TrEMBL record:
Entry's family note: Belongs to the CFAP91 family.
GO cellular component terms, A-Z: axoneme
Keywords: Cell projection, Cytoplasm, Cytoskeleton
Protein's name according to its UniProt entry: Cilia- and flagella-associated protein 91
Ranges for region Disordered: 1-20
Source superkingdom: Eukaryota
Compartments (UniProt record): Cytoplasm, Cytoskeleton, Cilium axoneme
Keyword Nucleotide-binding applies: no
């Protein structure tokens, strides 16, 4: 009543089917011995081709039983004629088998050629796609460069057309300080100004920060509220009302504590 499934099934561990020993009685030729050349994987289990071979062997044995005896010249001539006819039939059958085998090989060759052609077409398509992608990338880079050069030339033309007549303009200090992109806030290095130069002048130098005595004096000048921390203990929350009832918030806190625990 209990079904079990092991790691190794009988079907997975099964070897070739067992063929027991046999003894042939004298004077008898069993038909089964004609299939002794068939083994598991080579003819067994029997298919359509093996069945046709068995039927052909039976017909040949029946034909051999009908051969005339060799006791007279006429019987010998008749026997030779029958054997020649059978030999022609055998050769015709063999030619048909060879033609079938050639057709099968031709079909296999066609499939191999089609597969190779398909793989070659896929490879060619991939190469063309990669080539097209490279051309597209080069085209986009070229268009970006053209757009960048166009914007640069437009800015130059706009700057040049601001003062077409070449008139001298007075400096507008208010305009320079209201525009955060002007030379006052963001000077350019091409006009001889380098923002990183003389950066040490912005460093804070103070006796209170550079010497130990200055630090002690600075610490002594600070009030006690800065150096000494005062902590006030929190007052306990009242969980009951004046009439002696427990508050709703206290009950919720107890339930939350139980859930958390």
């Amino acid at each position: 009543t209990v079904g079990t499934q092991t790691d190794y099934r009988d079907g997975e561990a099964q070897t070739d089917p067992y063929s027991p020993e046999y003894i042939v009685p004298s004077g008898s030729v069993p038909e089964l011995l004609t299939l002794a050349t068939l083994t598991w994987g080579r003819g067994l289990p029997a298919g359509l081709a093996e069945v046709e071979m068995i039927e052909r062997a039976r017909e040949k044995r029946a034909w051999e039983a009908t051969l005339p005896s060799m006791d007279s010249a006429s019987q010998i001539a008749k026997r030779r004629k029958m054997m020649d006819d059978m030999e022609r039939k055998e050769w015709a059958f063999r030619e048909k088998e060879i033609e079938k085998l050639q057709e099968v090989r031709l079909e296999v060759l066609k499939k191999l050629l089609q597969r190779r052609e398909k793989n070659q077409n896929e490879l060619d398509a991939k190469r063309l796609d990669d080539h097209w992608q490279n051309h597209q990338k080069a085209k986009e880079e070229k268009m970006k460069k053209i757009q960048h050069d166009c914007a640069l030339m437009l800015r130059k033309l706009i700057a040049k057309r601001k003062n077409v007549m070449g008139k001298l303009e007075r400096r507008d200090i208010i305009k320079e300080y209201t525009d955060f992109a002007s030379q006052t806030y963001a000077p350019l290095s091409r006009i001889g100004y380098f923002p990183d130069n003389h950066s040490e002048r912005y460093v804070v130098k103070n006796i209170y920060l550079s010497t130990f005595a200055g630090l002690c004096e600075l610490e002594a000048s600070l009030p006690d509220s800065v150096t000494q921390v005062k902590i006030k203990a929190p007052k306990p929350k009242y969980t009951t009302t004046e009439t002696g009832y427990i508050k709703r918030s206290a009950r919720l806190e107890v339930e939350l504590a139980q859930v958390h625990q």
